[in-house]
Amino acid sequence: MIRFFLVAAMDVERLISKLFPRELKEKERQALLFTGLALVLMLAYFFGGSRGFFLQRILPILPVQIAVPDTVASFYQFASAFLLLLILPLVAVKLTSRSRLGELNFGLGDWRRGFLVAILGIVVISIPGGFFASLDPAFIREYPLAKSAVENPTRLVAYELAYGLLYYVAWEGFFRGILQSELSRFLGMIPALLVQVTASTLIHIGKPVTEVWASLLAGIAFGIAVMHIRSIWPLVIVHWALGTATDLFCAHAAGLWP
């Protein structure tokens, strides 16, 4: 009986070795660990890095009165995204795979093609997208995230700069940079693209329905674009321009902007 189980165990081990070579198993393990870490950071941002968390949990315990809480809450969200979706993932990658920034699409890549992508993206996507968003009442209610930011030109400039330099750099750096690039090493380019699109779409849940569907299309288009230009920066510019245009058009539609 003991011999039977020993032989059976050896047969199972040989079968597992054939189906899952050691190299493949290691890649699967790395992909699982990296995906798990990415999911934890996304959840931490979604629940603890949001404006709602600041307004509901942090604002009531602050010892000082804040004149423009929605603007401060937005800055909190942008800074949270920068920390949880950019800094911590970069540290994790540095400690594990040691991939260089260029391999994560943080370099210039094909800068000539990237320049064209940025210009065409602003003209074809960002400006028209912001305008059409302002025709949707759900977008007008949602954007700008901080209505008080529009009341003061200096505050608005600071707000939009933080929006781009903290939030959009972190967003594109995480989804189209770190997540897609690292998973492509373990899973291949197409599976990595699909994971990135799924993650970046689902994290939009709670936004206007049109934006959720648009994020699905943008995830595919931006993911394919970064494969070709090997740089997130043109996508950061397009996404940042879209966010700014949406803010201004929606603020105008709401009567907050002349």
Structural class: mainly alpha
Regions with pLDDT < 50 over 5+ consecutive residues?
1-10
Provide the residue-averaged pLDDT: 89
How many domains in all?
Answer: 1
Could you give the distance between the termini? 86 Å
Number of helices: 10
List its salient traits.
0% strand, 78% helix, 10 helices, globular, mainly alpha, 258 residues
Quick summary:
The chain is mostly helical. Helix content is 78%, strand content 0%.
Report on the structure:
This protein is an all-alpha fold. The protein has one domain (26-253). It contains 10 helices and no strands. Helix 4 (69-95) runs parallel beside helix 7 (153-187). The protein starts with a helix and ends in a 5-residue tail after the last helix. The model is unreliable at 1-10 (pLDDT under 50).
Topology:
Layout (H helix, E strand, L loop, with lengths): L1 H18 L2 H27 L2 H8 L10 H27 L15 H23 L3 H6 L10 H35 L1 H14 L6 H21 L3 H21 L5
Helix pairs in contact: 2-4, 2-7, 3-4, 4-7, 5-10, 7-8, 7-10, 8-9
